[in-house]
Write a structure and sequence with these properties.
single chain; alpha/beta; about 50% helix; about 15% strand; globular
Length: about 250
Amino acid sequence: MNLKLAGKVVLITGASKGIGLASAIAFAGEGARLLLAARGADGLTAAATAASAAGAPEVATATCDVTVDADVEQLMATARQRFGRIDVLVNNAAGKLPAGEFADISNDAWLAGWNQKLQCHIRACRAAYPIMQAQKSGVIVNVLGTAARNPKHSYMPVGISNAALFNFTKSFADLCAPQGIRVVGVAPSGVTTDRWTRLINSRAPAEGKTPEQLQAEIDAALPLGRMAHPQDVADAICFVASARAAYIC
């Protein structure tokens, strides 16, 4: 199936590992031009090498902390200067959200958590929006999480922030669709990334289990008997960003 992504400019945040890196490789295989963003320069260099090897005709990188307004504005400026446009934004980067015992999570930690997930996505959308408005085209893919629909007391901030992002994504999609901009959410369940490992290690004590016990229970409850791999999610992202999903918004 030709996804018609060849030559498209794809900006991916959190591109140095996990879902972001897998997405970079997937888009590279479709011939997209890439701008890869993450906080660490070393990881970006390795990601760019992998994307080039996978077939991307052009790869640029930019260090960016998506919790900082100025960094995100500079990232969009870099995209305009280097490529002149943004066809696809994969809004993937997120920081560490608190998990564990409710009574142990401070008010400051809750507020910091919003900036680590919810506001990161909103910030990137706000910065990309005027560029796509001027083009009268574009696709924004927000990487969400099914914790929005599956609340657990051991990771309340994770579920609540994802629920808010579901709401934001739908509202923003309704705003953007008449302007030729599609906004879609990809919401995998647990994915085997470093971030997931940190979450499990935080959740397990609050549920009176070891991380290994909790992971085994989660795997057993899934229809395929395993969690998703980053490439599984990357393939879905690549599809919904493509012309083959032009009526999904």
